[in-house]
Amino acid sequence: MSTTIKSTAPAVPSRTYSRWASLVVLCAGTLMTILDGNIVTVAMPAIQGDLGFSAPGLAWVVNAYLIPFGGLLLLVGRLGDLVGRKRMFVAGLAVFTAASVLCGVATSQGMLIAARAVQGVGGAMTAAVVLGMLVALFPEPREQARAIAVFSAVGAAGGALGTFLGGALTQALNWHWIFLINLPIGAVALLAALRVIAPEQGAGLGKGADYPGAVLVTGALMLAVFVIVGSGDRSLTFTLLLGALALALLLAFTVRQSRAARPLLRLRLFRSRLLSGANAVQILMIAAMFGFQFIGALYLQRVLGYGELLTGTAFLPAPIAIGVLMLGLSARTIGRFGAYRVLLAGLVLVVAGMALLGRAPVDGSYAVDVLPALLLLAAGFAAAMPALTGLAMSGAREEDAGLASGLFNTTQVVGGSLGLAVLSVLAADRTDTLLGRGEELVAATAAGYRLAFGVGAVLATAALVLAAAVLRPRRG
C-alpha cells in the first residue's frame, strides 16, 4: 500500500536542491509556531510576576494562542487551496512575526493576550498548508518519506526545544526575548520563502469556500478549544453547556456541508479509512505526549526542585533523540517495514514510556526515573509521527491536500489541548484530595502527577489499539 499522494500540481520545482531548500523554509516556519506553543511554559512565573496576572488569568497567555490557532486551521487550509498555498504560508509568516514583536514589547496583560491571539491566527495560516505543500513537492514515495521524516523531526524536536529555550532566555535575559527571538527567524524565513518556494496557482476564490459553513466550524472549533483548555477554571454545569453549544455548531456545520454547493469541508474526506483513522489516533497520541511535556516539567520543578534552566536542559535529550532517529532511520524503516508496522512499534514505546513515568517517586532522580522514560517517548514519537503523517495524507486527493493538512493540524491542536486539560485537572484534583487528608505537599503533588502519567499511558494504549484495528493495510 502506498502512503503518498499522487500530485498533479504543475508548480513543483524541477531542480532537486530547490525542493529541499523549500522544505527547509517550510520546516523553519513550522518550527517557529511549534516553539511558541511550548516556549511560554517555563517563562510563565516570570510573566506573571512582571505583568501581575492572577493564576486563572495567566492561563490565557497560552489559551489566547491555542483558541484561534485550533479554530482557524480548517478555514485557512481551504483558503490555501483556493488562493495558493504559498501565498497563505507567506502571509502567515508575516502575521506571526509581527505579532511576536508585539508580544515581546507588551507592557500590559491585555496587550500580551491580544498579541498572542494574533500570533495564533498567523500560526494557523502557516501550519494549515504546510503538509499539502510538502506532499506536492515530493510526490515520489521514497523522497516523500524522507521529507516527512525531516518535517516531523523538526516539529517534534521543536516542542521539547521550546521548553529549553524558554528557560534559557528567561533566565539569561528576560521573558520578552522568548517572543523577540522570532523576529530574525521569521524575517529570514519570509524572505527565503519568497525566493525559493515555487509559485502555484490556487483553484481561485471563484471556486468558493462555504463562508457560512466557515463561520459555523470556526466558531465550533474555537469554542471547543476554549472549553477544553479552560475546563479546570469553570463549574461543570457551565463547561457542559459550552460543550453542548460547540457540539450544536459542529452538527449545524455538518448539515450545511452535506447541502452546500461548494462545501468548505468535503464530507467524502471522512470516507477515507486512513485519513479518519490517522486523525483519531493522533488525538489520543498527542493528548498523552503533550500532557507528559507539561506535567513532566512541573514534576521536575515542584517535586525534584529543578530551576527553569535546569528543567529546560533536562528535556534536551528528547529533541536530540527525535532528530537523530527521524532523520537517520525513519524513512528507511518505513520503506522497509511499512508505515503501519512502524506506527505500532512507535506507539508501543510511547505506552512503555508513559507507564514508566507513572512511578514518579517523591525522592526520584533524573537518571533513573525521568531520562529512561524520556528516551522511550522520544524513540516512540520519532517512529510513530512520520508514519502517522504519511498514512493520514495518503488518504486525501491532491485537490484536498490543503484541507487534509489543516484537518491533521487541527486534530493535533485538539489532542494537545485535551491532554493538557485532562491530565492537569486530574493531577490537581488528586493533589487537593490528598492535601485535604493531611498529606505533605510534595508527596501529594507527586501522587497527582503519577495519576496524570497513568492516564497518559491509558490514552497511548487506546491510540495503539485503534491504530491496530483501523489502519491495518488491506490485502490486494
TrEMBL record:
Residue intervals passing through the bilayer: 20-47, 53-76, 88-107, 113-136, 148-169, 175-197, 209-229, 235-253, 274-300, 306-327, 339-358, 370-394, 406-428, 448-471
Protein origin, superkingdom: Bacteria
Main location: membrane
Subcellular location: Cell membrane
Pfam families documented for this protein: MFS_1 (PF07690)
Alphabetized UniProt keyword annotations: Antibiotic resistance, Cell membrane, Membrane, Transmembrane, Transmembrane helix, Transport
Membrane-protein topology: Multi-pass membrane protein
Record-annotated Major facilitator superfamily (MFS) profile domain positions: 22-475
SUPFAM superfamilies linked to this entry: MFS general substrate transporter
InterPro entries listed in its UniProt record: MFS, MFS_dom, MFS_trans_sf
PANTHER family cross-referenced by the UniProt entry: BLR6921 PROTEIN (PTHR42718:SF46), MAJOR FACILITATOR SUPERFAMILY MULTIDRUG TRANSPORTER MFSC (PTHR42718)
The protein's name: EmrB/QacA subfamily drug resistance transporter
Organism: Streptomyces pseudovenezuelae
